[in-house]
């Protein structure tokens, strides 16, 4: 491989803040809003042109999984267009604006179209981040940095230890591009919401038909009503063997998934009642990556903690509830290790503070699917409602650290818990 050497150059420091948050998905937005509301001078950096991540640019159908209280409840109360179960259906265009309003009301300094590319370090302490954008190469210094990039890009640059994918073989959950079809007769239509849900149709079992007629590695049928009449969100494209930290693999996933879309629409027209006249109207501009880096933290959450509905003494996320949503790592449908319909624990669980504090690096927090947990535990906590409340807790903690000049590993957790309970979050 050939190399070039960059000329030495000065990088302008454009901001010095208390808390710098990287990545504006639900975790990052939750973190930035919470930190700013606690009085910290806060900046949020996002590489895309919209905030919301998979919830918006990723065209996610609904808020899957749940928590009680916290920032997630605020998101629903301000963005939902329906009551009851319908509160969880996402209108991505509305949600983009709601998120921006919440950020601006909190006083967060927002920078879009900007990529966090490197770190400013003093020994094992992160002092800031290098940004790349149309404005050039710039630096922001911060007392506390929160990595909510999903993949943990900045935590990795800082040297925080991690592993990728499933322990043992490194395989990661597949990638997806969500898309929407219109022209659906909802009264006739069927809407399987999980891998283990199917319908007996004139041509046979719906999921079996998908496995037989859809292009591999696609093959499952997941269809969700949207907030618009006759418009349905499809979670059916599938690309296995992808590492979401690789630009080359992200390109591969885009090519593979987009090539599947027309064939999926043809399948829906041919086999699924109510979809005879459907047609594509939009698709995600962001590839859905489910799993990449798992960072090693002061503590690690494990499947047994979830199955036992464990309440940790040092909890900072409460009443997290979902299942082991492991998409088949080598094909379509639910992986043999996953559990959806028959998941045995429905009470919810907590996540301890140490999962958000990486080993070896100071003044850095993790928030979102990159926290310290096993592959199986991650399949539960990776969903957006839980991530949104992770962000809130970490944002509060970051503001406390910045105000008291305390490193995250030394912060008294009861102070975070007390503030969360004031905001209606209880274990």
Strand proportion:
15-25%
**Gap from first CA to last CA:** 53 Å
Low-confidence stretches: none
The DSSP helix count reads 10
The biggest sheet, with number of strands, parallel, antiparallel or mixed sense and barrel status, is: 7 strands, mixed
Radius of gyration: 21 Å
* Number of strand segments: 17
Helical proportion, percent range: 25-40%
Quote the average pLDDT.
97
Q: Would you tell me the structural class of the helices and strands? A: alpha/beta
Overall 3D shape? globular
The helix/strand order is EHEHHEEEEHEEEEHEEHEEHEEEHHH
List the helices and strands and how they pair.
Blueprint (H helix, E strand, L loop, with lengths): L12 E10 L3 H12 L4 E4 L24 H10 L12 H15 L2 E3 L3 E8 L2 E9 L2 E12 L5 H6 L3 E3 L14 E4 L17 E2 L2 E2 H8 L9 E3 L6 E3 L12 H25 L7 E5 L9 E3 L7 H5 L7 E6 L28 E4 L11 E3 L8 H7 L2 H21 L8 H10 L5
Parallel strand pairs: 1-2, 1-6, 2-3, 6-17
Antiparallel strand pairs: 4-5, 5-6, 7-14, 8-12, 8-13, 9-10, 11-12, 15-16
Helix pairs in contact: 1-3, 1-9, 9-10
